[in-house]
Design a protein that fits this description.
The complex is a heterodimer of chains A (about 120) and B (about 160). Chain A is about 75% helix and about 0% strand. By secondary structure, chain A is mainly alpha-helical. The two termini of chain B are about 25 Å apart. In chain B, strands 1-3-2 form a 3-stranded antiparallel sheet, covered by helices on one side. Chain B has 2 domains: about 40 residues, no CATH class; about 100 residues, no CATH class. The chains are: A mainly alpha (about 120), B mainly alpha (about 160). The interface between A and B is medium-sized, with 34 and 35 residues.
């Protein structure tokens, strides 16, 4: 792998490195938010950094890296991105609704009442 | 033709997905892919989710562009919120009255809202169209209503009209 990367021309290596750093940075900040934010509903927002542009930048970097190295279009990362995009709302909604249901049962004043 | 390909676009999408994942166009995997694509179309026909008509490709493109921009902006905003610990940040629930009733369009809206950091779709009442959102930094409530209703709901209604 390391010898392979040495063959990567700088014109591709620079954007790949930048995209990887941005993607990993956003995902790291999102994970940090899980520690830092106080309520459950606030913490629901933190991982979406990783599932939106955190994922997007990493996948784009992977597409450029392997397309340039192999000299052909490597685009099956789009499938990964699409699947993450359509499946995260399901998990997030399930978590948020489960938490809302419990808070309402416990008569927590912080959450809006059912209509 | 209809019995063989009840959902031609879905079947085509499945075939492309299969070939992309296998990373080959060899006849063997392609044949399996065609079978998978056909069966996927039949399964969807049995589930019968309705047949949404997509109109206005220009609106689809504009909405996609807007969403990509908004997600980028809110990525930065949420990252700042996490790192800086702003004192005037107020997280909270918002209720928004939606006109949209098409299930597929609502699903797309849910994906958009959830994919955008800082806003999460919590609950939707299909009878009176009330949407409950949770927002990390509320700021001006009217801005959120305008964002959802004018920037997302309006184009979605044109697309799924």
């Amino acid at each position: 792998m390391i010898e392979m990367t040495a063959e990567l021309p700088w014109i591709a290596a620079v954007p790949v490195a930048l995209l990887l750093l941005i993607g990993a940075g956003l995902t790291l900040v999102g994970s940090f938010g899980l520690l830092r934010l106080r309520s459950f509903y606030e913490r629901v927002h933190a991982p979406t950094l990783g599932t939106s542009y955190g994922m997007g930048c990493t996948l784009l970097a992977s597409m450029i890296f392997f397309s340039v190295l192999q000299g052909r279009f490597v685009i099956h990362e789009i499938v990964i991105g699409f699947l993450i995009l359509v499946t995260t709302p399901v998990t997030l909604m399930l978590l948020a609704r489960a938490s809302l249901h419990r808070d309402r049962l416990e008569k927590n004043e912080q959450v809006p009442p059912p209509r | 033709m209809r019995w063989l390909l009840p959902h031609p676009l879905v079947s085509l999408g499945l075939l492309v997905l299969w070939l992309l994942l296998n990373r080959t166009y060899a006849p063997g995997p392609a044949l399996v892919g065609i079978i998978v694509a056909l069966m996927g179309g039949w399964a969807l026909a049995l589930l019968d989710p309705g047949r949404p008509r997509l109109r206005r490709l220009d609106v689809v493109l504009k909405l996609t562009l807007h969403v990509l921009l908004d997600i980028a902006k809110s990525n930065l905003a949420v990252a700042r919120n996490i790192l800086e610990r702003k004192s005037d940040r107020r997280a909270g629930f918002l209720r928004i009255q939606l006109e949209l009733r098409e299930p597929q369009a609502l699903a797309v809206l849910a994906c958009i809202v959830t994919a955008t950091p800082g806003s999460a779709w919590v609950e939707f009442d299909p009878e009176d169209g009330q949407l409950l959102l949770h927002v990390l930094d509320v700021g001006e409530e009217a801005d959120w209503v305008r964002l959802i209703k004018e920037r997302y709901e309006q184009p979605l209604m044109e697309i799924f009209a």
